[in-house]
Amino acid sequence: MIKKILCATDGSIVSEKAVDFTIDFARQLGAEVVFLTADTITPDRLAGNRFWDSKVLAAVSEQENRELHSASKKAKAAGLKSFSTVAAHGLNIAATIIAYAEEHKIGHIVAGSTGRTGISRMLMGSIASDIVAKAHCPVTIVR
Length: 143
What we know:
143 residues, Rossmann fold, 5-stranded parallel sheet, globular
């Protein structure tokens, strides 16, 4: 039985679909949800870089808050009782999502995907594909 679901969100249209799916899925299962946004911008990475400053970190934080607030607002409106939000940072988005899921004993991960194929996928990589390939638990990709 799935007790905890992690929903990766980045504020995009497809991740909003993933949020909606996760809320319905969690309600059906009676599961707890963690809405997670991940990015690669951290104070450590910006330290010593003369082109970045605290304004960049503030902008990143503001964006994360918007993404998580949107998910939280939808969950509340749907009557979801058990959910939380978290911003995570790391060098690789997929690895950050997977590490959080493993550390917090998540039983299922939901993420959105734009469905890139061919050359664009090879050049840009695919967070969703990496999550599917490397996660310790079942993964649902929403399109």
